[in-house]
């Protein structure tokens, strides 16, 4: 797929908080639109023939559901962790996140809240350790009853 | 009586969207989606935004849309508030998510993508793509240069049919 040009400079944050038009501005703008009626009609007729005009716009809720669905599918496809004791090269772990990376992670956790809760519930049910207790945890009984 | 739980199903094809934004770290473009934000869904967290989007969601006749991107289509990358004026669309607010602001922004291209969506909504409603807005004075020229916006009066700008068609073509052609 050919990458599309991105119309945003890296050093500017584009925001809009301008509010509404005044009644006088709206009246003048409508007069301008009336003058341009032919151009607007032409553009609209061209757009009406495009496939995207028929595409419904989803809700954010549906997009969140899509994310959950994709992640569940990914979990299902993932290979199980290796058997036995897992050892890793810990030298690859380190560094800190930027402010933006932390904000993204936080937003991710927020967006997956429902899925996360479901996995937490599952984890809680499995929290009883199945592996044998380490030897140092076994208390040796020293106060034996003396024979009478 | 217990409140009936509302459920929604994914019944629309949204996987084939090809409009994109760019991941700054890798320079790669990622596919995007645009979704309508409903106040009852409570999917906008106030602390992620500078503007009060919770209040904006409560405004009558205002429609808030979120731009999201793969691989996490549930995370809003930016938000836009629109109003249907009967013969054109008015943009009230537009903001990139906190992680897309400042020098370390993670993605670029979010605002024009949202503006293209506003133009698309204008075409969907039969308004020829026309979108009006009030610009910040310091960014006025920038919107003229990058979005093809035209001056109505002072900082009151609009995107006419020709520029709107160009923006929509650029971001939604692949649909």
Furnish the topology, listing elements before pairings.
The complex is a heterodimer of chains A (148) and B (175).
Chain A: H1 23-35, H2 37-48, H3 60-77, H4 99-111, H5 113-125
Chain B: E1 20-23, E2 29-37, H1 53-58, E3 62-69, E4 72-84, E5 89-96, E6 107-108, H2 110-124, E7 131-134, H3 140-147, E8 150-153, E9 156-159, H4 161-172
Parallel strand pairs in B: 5-7
Antiparallel strand pairs in B: 1-2, 1-6, 2-3, 3-4, 4-5, 7-9, 8-9
Overall description:
The complex is a heterodimer of chains A (148) and B (175). Chain A has helices at residues 23-35, 37-48, 60-77, 99-111, 113-125. By secondary structure, chain A is mainly α. Chain B is α+β, with helices and mostly antiparallel strands and 175 residues long. Chain B has one domain (21-171): 3-Layer(aba) Sandwich (Aminopeptidase), CATH 3.40.630.30. Helices cover 23% and strands 32% of the residues of chain B. In chain B, strands 6-1-2-3-4-5-7-9-8 form a nine-stranded mixed β-sheet. In chain B, strand 1 (20-23) and strand 2 form a beta hairpin. The model of chain B is unreliable at 1-18 (pLDDT under 50). The interface between A and B is large, with 67 and 95 residues.
